[in-house]
Prior knowledge:
The protein is α/β, with parallel strands linked by helices. It has helices spanning 41-55, 75-92, 101-109, 156-159, 171-178, 195-207; strands spanning 3-8, 14-21, 27-35, 65-71, 96-100, 117-124, 129-136, 141-149, 163-167, 184-185.
Amino acid sequence: MPLILSLDTSTAICSVALHNTDGLLSSSLLGSYELFTERTSSAMLTTLISDIVHQAGYELAQLDAIAVAKGPGSYTGLRIGVSTAKGLCFALDKPLIAVNTLRAMAEQVRGYYPGGYILCPMIDARRMEVYCALYSTDGHELQQTTAQIIDEQSFSEWLTENSVVFFGDGAAKCETMLGSHANAHFPNATIAPSARTVGHLAVVSYARSEFEDVATFEPFYLKDFMAIKPRKALF
């Protein structure tokens, strides 16, 4: 059975997961690690990878593919995750699978909502901006991934006739503006990007041979990196 290692470092959370698969939709989660401590990705990612593979009884050479959350998300986090995934692919001569971070977030919750709901995963992009996309509960993309500044009119065309579930660390901004709308829903549970659902979606991509070009693949940053300029010294 193909063995797939998945990584997600698109936010401050660092997670890895290991799946084996038998067919297009059948997979088993062999193990996962998730660290919710700030700034752990670069320091701990390679350790978590080694630990999860060896504790499941395998060697890195036995992996059949590497999957990574491609973004959107933190510029630094995405760079770390993708560069690590590409390094493994080059070293082990394995294919690379890339999964949209927001799509993987939607996969976590879609089984909890009946048809008719629209899922809107959100990642904080600073100030009143979020990265977001819209998905149906059967997994179809309704609106592509975008960066949006949230105000009282956001998603009005969808909320008029649909119940929309907003979740992720960017949803708090949306709740401030849209929390009183009858069709806007905000789960109490914390829903964060996870390598577990990246791996679940990667199983389908693997069965369809949907692989990336390892040499040219880049993270889906969505926006250019904006460095904060240091203040000039007063003296």
